[in-house]
Amino acid sequence: MFITNILLKKAKSKNILVLMESAVSGHQFTMIRERLADKLELQRFDPYIQRMCLYRERKRLRSLN
């Protein structure tokens, strides 16, 4: 490995953008969480069914600076 590769290497970002999906209707939105945190699960208003329901983290979209 060359010394320039070590100097030009980027540090990993602290936050990532994740896709949240409703467990009931499939409604989706994006949210930011820390990279080292557990996967998110939260209750939020679902506009498709007009009620509160459980949203789970579906997949990681990208890292943020």
UniProtKB/TrEMBL annotation:
Compartments reported by the entry: Mitochondrion
SUPFAM superfamilies recorded: Zn-binding ribosomal proteins
Superkingdom, taxonomy of origin: Eukaryota
InterPro entries attached to this UniProt entry: Mitoribosomal_protein_bL33, Ribosomal_bL33_sf, Ribosomal_zn-bd
GO cellular component: mitochondrion; ribonucleoprotein complex; ribosome
Assigned keywords, A-Z: Mitochondrion, Ribonucleoprotein, Ribosomal protein, Transit peptide
An individual GO BP term: translation
Family: Belongs to the bacterial ribosomal protein bL33 family.
Subunit structure: Component of the mitochondrial ribosome large subunit (39S) which comprises a 16S rRNA and about 50 distinct proteins.
Protein name per Swiss-Prot or TrEMBL: Large ribosomal subunit protein bL33m
